[in-house]
Queue: 2 jobs
Job 1
Amino acid sequence: MRQLAEVAPGILMVTGQPYTTTTTVVTGHDGRCLVIDPAITVADVRGLAGELAARALRAESGWATHAHWDHVLWCEELGNPPRYAAPAAVAAAAADRPAMIEAVEREVPGHDLELFGQLQALDADHIPWHGPAAQVIVHDGHQAGHGAVFFPATGTLVAGDMCSDVEIPLLGPGPGAVGRYRDGLDRLASLDVRVVVPGHGHAGDAAEFRRRLAADLRYLDDLEAGRPSRDARITGWLRTEHERQGGTSGVESVRNG
Ligand SMILES: [Zn+2]
C-alpha cells in the first residue's frame, strides 16, 4: 500500500485506489494526531493504523468531512478517540445508515460495522485537539453538514468532496442544490489557501486551488444554463452523474464536432 507523504508541514496524506480517495493525518503535540476521513479498503485503514504506530503517532481526534460511506470508516487499531462531524452530517449518518452499510459492504467489504459511521456532533468552529488550529468550514454543498477543515498555520484546506482535480461538483439532493454548492465554494474561496487536499484526487498549490474553483464554477454555470460542459473530468462513472444532475453530454459533442 502507499504511504503517508507530507503535503505541508505536519500534514500527511495518502491516496487509496478506489475513487482516488485520500486520507489526511495532521500531527500535533506529544505524538498525537488528527485523522480525517480514513479510507478506504480494510487493508488501507489497517495499514494507516500500522503506519501511525510505526511513527509513534496516536489518533487524538477524528473528523469526518461528511456522511458518505467512504468518509466514515474506522478500525479498532486506530483506537477509540472521539470522531467528530458537523451536526447535520451526524444526523445524515444516522438517517442513511442502512444504505451506507449496503454501499460499504458492496464496495469495500469486511469493515467492522460496529465502528462504521460512529460520529459525534461537533457544534463548534474548531476541532478540539492538541495540535494546529483546525477550523471547520461547514456548508451544505455536496451534502448537508459538509465540513471542510482549514489549518491557517500552513494555509492547508482539507476540502472533503469539493475542489477535486478528478471529480466534477457532485450536488446534494433536492431543489436549490446548485445554490448550496455555490455557497460552499464561496466559503472556501474566502480562505487564504496555499495547499488544497481534496477527498478524491490530488493535492494542489494555491494556483491549482484557484483553477479548481474556477472550473467548478464554470461547471455549475453550464449546468444552470443548460449548456454542454467541456469539463475534462466528465469521464467514466462521472458521465452518469453529470447526466443525473441535468448536464448534457458536452464531452461527446465536443469530440464529435
Ligand atoms: Zn461525498
Job 2
Amino acid sequence: MTAGSVHIVGAGLAGLAAAVALAAEGCRVRLYEASAHAGGRCRSYFDDELGCRIDNGNHLLLAGNRRALDYLERIGARDTLEGPEDAVFAFIDAQTGQRWSVRPNRGTVPWWIFWNARRVPHTRAAEYFGALALRWAGPTAMVTEVLDRRRRLFRELWEPLAIAALNTAVECASARLFWRILAETLGRGGAACRPLVPREGLSETFVDPALAVLHARGAEIRFGARLRALNFGPDHVSGLVFEADAIEIGRDDLVILAVPAAVAARLVPSLTVPDAFSPIVNAHFRCAAPPGSPLFVGVVDGVAQWIFRKHGVLSVTVSAADRVIDLPADALREMLWRDVALAYRLPAFPVPPARIVKERRATFLASPEQLRRRPGPTTSWQSLLLAGDYTDTGLPATIEGAIGSGFAAARQALACAHAKPQRAAGGGDIVTETTTRTDKERQRILS
Ligand SMILES: Cc1cc2nc3c(=O)[nH]c(=O)nc-3n(C[C@H](O)[C@H](O)[C@H](O)COP(=O)(O)OP(=O)(O)OC[C@H]3O[C@@H](n4cnc5c(N)ncnc54)[C@H](O)[C@@H]3O)c2cc1C
C-alpha cells in the first residue's frame, strides 16, 4: 500500500487496470476521467438510430491473453465472455465465395498444419514453418520483407492475422511485433488461441464491473474531469490542473497518467510517444444472423475484414482502414453489406439500417519506427508514471497491452512507495526494505 493517494488520470482500460490492482492492495485511489463515461476506446453505448446497444468497435480476445483474463478475474467478470470450445477461425474469399476454417489443435505441438482439413486449403505443412523467419527479423524489418506475400498462405492467413492484431498494413508493420503475437497465440497452441468475445457488450465485461469493484473499495471516481496541465516540482508532480479546479499533490502521492499518447505528450515536457496512427472503421448492421452461423468470419479480398455476430446486430471491422476511412457512410454501408450478406448467407437487398463508426486514431501505427518511440512506465519525475496501450508493453495497441500497462504502472507505484523513505516516530528517515516477502508476493500477484 502507498502512504499517500494514487491519482490516476484516464479511465480507459489502462487506467482501470491500474486502479483495480492498486485498490486491491489497499491504496487510496482517485480516478479522473475527462468524458462522462469510463472505457475509453473500449466501451458500449445505446445507439438511438439502431435502437440497441453497440460496442464502439469489435474487440476480440484470445484465451492466451493472460493479463486481460487476470483483470477480468479481479473484477469478477471472467464469465461474461463467450466463445467456441476450440480455436476455430472461419474464413471466406469475397471474390470466389470459397470458405475454409483454420483449426489449430489444443496442444503446443502444431500437428494441425499436417492436416488438410485444419489448415488453409492448397497450402503445405512446410510453408507454415516459414513464419519462424519472423523470430530472427531485425528491428527495422517489415512483415512483407520477411514473409513471401505471393504465397496463398500469406494472403489467406498471415495477412488477415497481422492486420487484425497490429492494425497496420503489412508493408509497414513490424515483423518482430507480429512474431510476438504469433508466439503468444499460435505458438502456445490452440488452447491459447480460443477466441473470446463479450456476451453482452464491452462495457458490461470490461468497464461496469471494474467501476463496481472500485466503488466497493472506496476509490474516488470523477467524470468530466479533463486534466489541462501538470504542475512540476524539481523531482515530483506538485499539482493537477483540471478545467474546473486544481488539486495539490503531496510528496507521498503518486500520479499515473493513463491518457492517450498525444494527450500525454502535451502534458509531459519532452516526452517521446508514437505520433503516427492508424484508423479502424466499424459498421454495425441491425440484422440477426441465421441460427447456427459462426461467431465471426474473416473475409479475404473483400472490403470487410472480420464480421462478428452479436445480439440482433452483425458488426464489421476494417482495420488499417486508410483506403476507406474518407468514403461517405452510405457508400461504406453498401460496400460492407455485400461482404456481410455473402459471409452470413443473407439477401443482398435491402441493405439493413447501419451505424458506421470511424476511429481515425484507433491505435498507433505498429511500424518499427513508431515502436522505437514508445516510452516505459517511469518518467523523469519520481512520482509520475505512465500507462496506456502506447507505452512499451512489447505488444501492439490491444486490450492485453493496455491492461498490461496498467498493471505495470501499479507494480511500479508499489515499488516507488516501498522504496520511499518514511518518517520514523523520532523524526529521522527510515528506508523500508524493497524486497520483503510481502513485496515479492505482491510482485508475483501483479505480474
Ligand atoms: C475500433 C477499435 C477496435 C479495436 N479492436 C481491438 C481488438 O479487437 N482487440 C484488442 O485487443 N484491442 C482492440 N482495440 C484497441 C483497444 O481498444 C485499445 O488498445 C485500448 O482500449 C486502449 O486503452 P487505453 O486505456 O490505453 O487508452 P484509452 O482507451 O484511449 O483511454 C484513455 C482515457 O483517457 C481519457 N482522457 C483523455 N484525455 C484526458 C484528460 N486530459 N484528462 C482526463 N482523462 C483523459 C479518455 O477519455 C479515455 O477514457 C481496438 C480499438 C479501437 C478504437
